[in-house]
Amino acid sequence: MGKLMGVEQLFEGRHFDREVIILCVRWYLRFKLSLRDLVEMMAERGLSMAHTTIMRWVWRYAPEFEKRWKRFAQAVGRSWRVDETYVKIRGEWCYLYRAVDRAGRTVDFRLSAKRDVAAAKAFFRKAIKGQHDAPRTITLDGYAASHRAVRELKADGLLPAETKLRSSKYLNNLIEQDHRGVKQRIATMLGFKGFATAAITIAGIELMHRIRKGQFGLGRLGVQGRLAPAVWNAVLQA
Q: What are the strands, taking DSSP E only, across 32-163?
């Protein structure tokens, strides 16, 4: 990861205070709120803004927030449950590849326009790179392309030959249940207008999902027991 710009520089030139920007982006990604809901909530605090302003904040800052929280990510287990779910973008169905470990912690995710071998391999490469380690066990459903992707990654040496591949609908209930936390937030957004903005927004939703699961080690920041705004400021300024 390259050097991150300072938090003051990150919010330099903005009309609103950074606390307001962080709050709006955080609440939009975490809760089932529309942009206009947030506009109304901010108006009750005496702040007048357009819903498009908040949307631009999400696109600008969600990737920055993800990079800063990533520094505190804790390793997950090496038994992965992998599955795909559906996301509508510009009226077309796309595919969100996701994986959790046996404890339900998020391993990784990847949005794809297609559901095929190449897309599955791209997801696994991203997940392995992000975790800095390959899984010992991969549990899939019966979709043939994902099984083929694992076999090809083994042949290419990107997955160890001893990685166990299994197919179990029962064991994969864990990832299917985990989809709900992400899909319920996406559903209230009434569809995305473009692939790039969908990828950014979903990454932000996944970040909030991981924070809620407690997947980040913040011990060295000394924020235990502090409220969310203080925690976020500490993470961004670290």
A: 79-89, 92-101, 106-112, 137-140
CA atoms within 13 A on the CB side of 238: 21
pLDDT tens-digit readout, 71-96: 999 999 999 999 999 999 998 999 99
Please report, as a single letter, which amino acid is at residue 11: F
Give the strand pairing for 79-89 and 137-140: parallel
User: Tokens in use for 166?
Assistant: 């299994």
In whole angstroms, what is the distance from residue 92 CA to residue 88 CA?
Answer: 5
Measured CA to CA, the distance from residue 216 to residue 46 in angstroms comes to 34
Q: Where are the beta strands (DSSP E) in the chain?
A: 79-89, 92-101, 106-112, 137-140, 164-167
- The predicted model scores a pTM of 0.94
Show the tokens assigned to 42.
């901010």
